[in-house]
Automatic annotation (TrEMBL):
GO terms for molecular function: fatty acyl-CoA hydrolase activity. It comes from Beauveria asiatica. Keywords: Hydrolase. Gene3D superfamilies: Hotdog Thioesterase. InterPro entries: 4-hydroxybenzoyl-CoA_TE, HotDog_dom_sf. PANTHER family: 4-HYDROXYBENZOYL-COA THIOESTERASE FAMILY MEMBER, NOVEL THIOESTERASE SUPERFAMILY DOMAIN AND SAPOSIN A-TYPE DOMAIN CONTAINING PROTEIN (0610012H03RIK). This is Thioesterase domain-containing protein. Belongs to the 4-hydroxybenzoyl-CoA thioesterase family. It comes from the Eukaryota.
């Protein structure tokens, strides 16, 4: 089905509350023209709204309208999970990610639509990030004095993958703060060039005893290890 984006976007301003935040909704609609878009599957994870007039779970018309609002041509910006993200994520390559973890999909990863359910992507992203922390940062979860707490995550679903495919999950760091780290995580299918999904995952390092952000920031050992997979790392650098 085709619809006019400009018309729907103008209608949306009448009901979209200025303080509304849509969290955890993947509206993956990339590379389409600025005036037309096709309907796309929406995979809900969680939602927080400040306006009772907005309920994407119950009103298909509002889902379609919001999908239209975030549609743009491939070089533009898209509205996904309440933040602006660059539409060029669909062009991510394996070489953009210095750490890659292989995962053989399981029979029960598939849902009734015969592809891996969207919730599994989040488990894989969490596992890949923590695998790097354990293997390269020396983080031992049961005894670590500084503990990474997830404070934000979202995923843009670009294409599906299904059992029995082998997934390749890439991890890099996009931003390092005093006590926080923002990862970008991508899922590829072995033997397929194009990326299947790209997500963002934010950790805040807290003191295990207090549950509060570490006063002096993350440890030097952890920071140095995370810098090795930073997106702006020196070219040719290896783990």
């Amino acid at each position: 089905m085709l619809f006019d984006v400009a018309s729907l976007a103008s209608q949306a301003t009448a009901w979209l509350h200025p303080q509304t935040m849509i969290c955890g909704y993947s509206l993956g609609c990339h590379g389409l023209s600025s005036t037309q878009a096709t309907t796309s599957t929406i995979l809900p994870a969680r939602m927080a709204c400040t306006s009772d007039s907005l309920d994407l779970r119950r009103d298909p018309a509002q889902r379609t309208t919001l999908l239209a609002i975030q549609t743009a041509n491939s070089g533009a910006q898209s509205f996904v999970s309440g933040i602006m993200v660059s539409a060029d994520i669909k062009n991510r390559k394996r070489e953009d990610y210095p750490f890659i973890l292989d995962y053989r999909t399981r029979w029960n990863d598939n849902d009734m639509y015969d592809h891996m359910n969207n919730s599994v992507y989040n488990f894989l992203f969490d596992s890949a990030v923590n695998a790097y922390l354990i293997e390269y940062c020396g983080l031992l979860p049961p005894t670590a004095t500084e503990t990474p707490l997830a404070v934000h995550s979202h995923t843009d679903y670009l294409a599906s993958i299904a059992y029995p495919a082998v997934a390749e999950v890439g991890v890099r760091v996009n931003k390092l703060g005093k006590s926080s780290v923002t990862y970008e995580v991508a899922l590829f299918e072995r033997g397929v060039d194009s990326v299947k999904a790209v997500g963002e995952f934010v950790h805040v390092m807290v003191e295990r005893a207090t549950g509060r952000p570490t006063a002096t920031g993350m440890s030097d050992r952890l920071r140095n290890a995370l810098e090795k997979i930073h997106k702006d790392r020196p070219k040719g650098s290896k783990l």
